[in-house]
Amino acid sequence: MTKDSLTRRILEAATGGPVAEGAIVSVPVDRIMAHDGSTPVVAATLERYGITELRGAERMVVVFDHFFPATTEQEANLHTKSRQFAAKYGIPVFSGEGICHHVLANRGLVMPGGVLVGGDSHTCINGAFGCLAIGLGATDVAGCLASGHLWLQMPDVVAVRLSGCLPAGVMAQDIALAVMERLTVRGALGQVIEFHGPGVAGLSMAQRMTISGFAVEAGALSGLFACDDTCRIWLAERGADLDRAAVVSPLPGDVSADVEIDLSRLVPVVAISPSPDKVVSLANATPEPVHQAFIGSCVGGHFADLQAAAAVLHGGRIAPGIRLFVAPSSDAALKAALSAGVVATLVEAGAVILPPGCGACLGRYGTLGEAETCLSTQNRNFIGRAGAKTARLHLASPVTVARAALTGTIPSVRGAS
Amino acid sequence: MDSGRLLRLPPSVFDNVNTDLILAAKFLRVDESDLGRYAFDGVIEGFAERAATHPVLLAGENFGCGSSREQAPKALIRAGVRMILAQSYGYIFFRNAINLGLLVLRYSDRERAAALETGGEVVVKNGGATLVGPGGHELALAPLGPPVTTILAAGGLMAALKAGLL
Questions:
Q1: How many domains does chain A have?
Q2: Residue A104 belongs to a domain
Q3: What is the pLDDT of residue A412?
Q4: Interface residue of B13, B18, B88 to substitute, partner A, most A CBs within 10 Å
Q5: Stretches in chain A below the pLDDT threshold 50
Q6: Do A24 and B159 touch (CB under 8 A)?
Q7: pLDDT of residue A417
Q8: A193 and A295, same structural domain?
Q9: Torsion angle defined by CA atoms of residues A61, A66, A70 and A74, in that order, rounded to the nearest 10 degrees
Q10: Disulfide check for A91: which of A86, A378, B55, B158 has CB 3.0–4.6 Å away?
Q11: Going by CATH, does the domain composed of B3-162 fall within 3.20.19.10?
Q12: Which domain covers residue A220, as residue numbers?
């Protein structure tokens, strides 16, 4: 008997028939996304092969986020090239609205029960909305654009069961890092992580996006949540296509879990350089001097993230010698933070606000120098990720990062090499 | 290309090799034809020179995890890599490599792979099911099936699409 899963339901809806374990399927893609880093490569690939008939063009969007605003002439020229490519095929370009995955969600361009591909590894974030959202390289994106289809092997599923309520001061990043600790960086290789259980209902869409956004760090194609009432309401407000939302309704009964996480038992944690699965609790950490604190990225720059950081920083001042950069994930997050006075609080505490976008996550702004240490709300801390190869990059929640900004130290493991 | 001299990745860069290590973000805007010299820059000294004469890479688990940057496999190809042997791959890297026509093969017996050393001539036999190294040392490989074989035979995804093979 085949195992029921959200992934199976989506692929069977897409292909119109049963899909066997490990079967190779070709599925129509409902949305194709590329950003300013991947679009020029997609365009060049299609040009090289003289492919001008793009069956997926109507489903494609381009988002500028990795280097918008441009910081060099070369980047500006790449933006021009992307705009020209998009104009030729009638593809919309969104710039100044923040990180691609957030722009897709905010504009209602995600579809529960559908298949979404993006030229960015963190495309898995939009699995939070019940769509099979898969990150691809540029040639695969070009192939989807040309054919309108994606081939893939029916992936195995890792079921994570969430229960309980998150304690105060513990955030979605702590949940995601708890999952990383359990799965490790290859615990879901080539698989899809599905999040089920009674703990899901209490999570906001922003929290789900953060959790889904770590899926690829465990090797997964996507991090899927069912589309429940919270999800439907959020998407309906943004005009999303909910026609296939019933495909990914919460699965009946209690799903047999590969990993069980009791949210009520979670504590604030930090993932130590250079791997997102090297997770330790703050309680077991000793202070380590920090040079930079970053609140932002696709998993740490929601309005709620900025708000939580502001609550910690309110009335205080960041430690001498430390720099705090804040990059809202989207223009919507920035607007909400401005209206709520969150931006004022952050700036009064000494934060520098970066444009909505990827920010310091890959070192485009706030590049790390030799032997510097950074505590960040992002999802990836590989060697050299955000600057010098000798820099140390640790991951934590916005609350933990804000606390570190105030004290000038970040938690590190006692006695660790 | 199904044979060549082997380059075993050093122990510190054998498992969980991410695409930031293969090609750092600061080289993403480099012209494609120049990418080869930046492969594993600051990670494996003289990688490009070694790969030029040792086109078969041997790695462990989860090779190419992380960022979707296609410049990572492109940099390896430009450096001269023609085949990669690993226990497992980051799924995006695996697809990218195939899409660019780079042969990526899987083995499971890490102990037998341990006998394969840098400089040894290896050849893929039995329709991709066996790797034979120096002294007839054999390593079982997971055979690739369609559509991967179709894409590789065409020289990459776009060529396969252009030819109407997919």
A1: 2
A2: yes
A3: 53
A4: B18
A5: 413-417
A6: no
A7: 33
A8: no
A9: -90
A10: A86
A11: yes
A12: 6-262
